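Class, carefully examine what follows:
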Amino acid sequence: MPDVFFELSFIWAGLIAFAVLTYVVLDGFDLGIGILFPFAHTHKDRDVMMNSVAPVWDGNETWLVLGGGGLFAVFPLAYAIVMPALYMPIILMLLALVFRGVAFEYRWKTVRWRGVWDTAFFGGSTVAALCQGIALGALVQGIDVDGRAYGGGWWDWLTPFSITTGIAVVVGYALLGSTWLVMKTSGAVSHHMRDIAKPLAIVTLVFIAVVSLWTPFQNAEYFGRWFNWPGTLYTSPVPIALVVAVFLLFQGLATGKETTPFLAAEAIFVLAFIGIGISFYPHIVPPSLTIVEAAAPDSSLLFTLVGTLVLVPLILIYTTYAYWVFRGKIDPDEGYH
């Protein structure tokens, strides 16, 4: 029985990682559409862009709540350390998501102030993506832990590395948004977004290369895991798969395919996330707090797991159903009003 309970902390770490990854996969292109708003040619094009995510945008953020709430419930020590370290980017991200949600509703209700709400939608999407990337970079570079509390300063999250990862996420989300619109729209919007996706893909890959080469030097453990034998043998499938995804992305964009570029762009994000997981494991707050050390009591882990194993499949079923119902191309003359 102790062995079973010991594994619960790793099961929960996997569930939270899954929730965060699902949020990135689903809400990344959603935020990317807001980031691309200034590049739309007309108000009508912006309407089409927004209508492409209108049925699913709020449901996508369910996974962010699950990830954050799960961390608080089952890894309270990690939550107590990470939150003080990342208060500023997390609060800014939440405020940006609020502004973005309000703008999503209000821009349809006015003509005179539509430009203001378009700007709020763009700003909220961009700031949210930037803060997510900064928080990720701050976590990757390591958080100072003093005993069982955060031991760093107020501005430790703000470094060249975290700013770089923040910009990388903004550009990457814009790539996801453009490939989503290639898949979901037709005519001028689709062609315009295909043209935008190509340079965005190049810039995204440059950022991935820079961050990937920079990350191992943030922590000796990261370096050893990626560049020391036999660690390289186990981690090599990730960069190999990344090369395949990149090839499919550019081939899909060049040959006029509609679904392949989006799926390839999503695969690039998934592989990057797996790479981060490989660097982190078995830490939940690098470089010093492991999954087991940060976990709640076994009884709490088991109690919350029972409810989660019921709710997560329901959320997955609802999400799948929503995407299935609203599959196919967007009709420019119909949508959210």
Q: What stands out?
A: The chain is about 75% helix and 5% strand. The CA atoms of residues 265 and 303 lie 37 Å apart. The domain at 11-325 is CATH 1.20.1630 (Formate dehydrogenase/DMSO reductase fold).
